[in-house]
Amino acid sequence: MPTRYDLLVKGGQLQDTPEGLNQDRKDIGIRQGRIESIADEIHEEDAQTVIDASGTIVCPGMIDLHVHVWDGVAHLGIPADLNCVGKGVTTAFDAGSAGADIYPGFQKYVIDVSATRIKSFLHISSQGQLTQDIGELTDIRYANVSKALEACETYKDSIVGIKIRMSTGIVGDNGPEGLKLALEVCEATGLPLMIHPNASPISFEEMMDELRGGDIVTHCYHRSDTGVIDESGRLRSAAKKALDKGIQFDVGHGAGSFSFDVAEAALEQGFPPGTISSDLHKYNVDGPVHSLLETVSKFIYLGLSFEEAIQKVTTDPARAIKMVGDIGALRQGAAADLTLIRIVEGPAEFTDALGEKRTGDLRLEHVSTVKDGRVYAPGMLQ
Q1: Rounded to two decimals, what is the model's pTM?
Q2: Domain enclosing residue 281, as ranges
Q3: CB within 8 A of 198, min separation 6: which ones?
Q4: Does residue 382 form part of some domain?
């Protein structure tokens, strides 16, 4: 006899504050990759497959706004599925690993074949991040507007924005011109710019003046003279103005871009992140980042509530990238993307990108992932 649901996730505590779900025990019925029903009780005989989610918290599939998954080509790339859907992330945004010259391969060999839903910020440098030895914009000829526009049109289903890294060693003397060309592509396409502002030859204030509402500043808690906190430990007025202008501030932990001290100072002065992302890549996947869920745990240690922290890896990034309602939500008709987690209480040591350590009293543990109605248990992607 045919069943109504392909998959039933039963007995979990559902967490999606914008949808009015605050660890409420409910069942989720999934059909053809979409959420069909959320109810107090769905009978097991109505489903082909049943997951017993009792004892877990069921969230919308987590969204990581900043990863690097052009494995084997970009110098910092890592395997997508092992490190994304295998760790609770159903949608990941690659932040500039590929530029226009190498994007066809990224689409064919990563995006099209991954279980993880992968979208991309196209690097304004047509070479992307091929090598660590030469800054990708030290030769401004790589900032080719026409190539970028062509890639954005050809791959409009996967390219959601433009990326630029503004550090001195990466742009050389080409910071102002590189930023101008990146914004030219954004204006022509209507896409947002994601900017890496660390240790830039351009001041924080100058960069914020150039950005527009909807653009994204990643690495928002890095420690350098072009960060949100000035040398006296105060939040820069330009950061407040940028926020008021509608600029988004994203964590982007990374191997050198997240400081507990900076985050604590910003939070104390009323400047929380808009979104939490990992910047997971080859040089931090074995520590200190490990996963997006580990980064979320750090922000719970820093004082965000569990509910706030989860929203910053579900609803908020979906809204930032204009995909809210399809992903990042537990609602009828949304993609059947779920992350099942458990709160493990007890001493938990965390390390920032500078090697500073903190000890919290809980850590979030990944239990299982559902992406488009398919189950990915820990270890199955090894």
Answers
A1: 0.98
A2: 62-320
A3: 166, 167, 219, 222, 224, 226, 227, 256, 257
A4: no
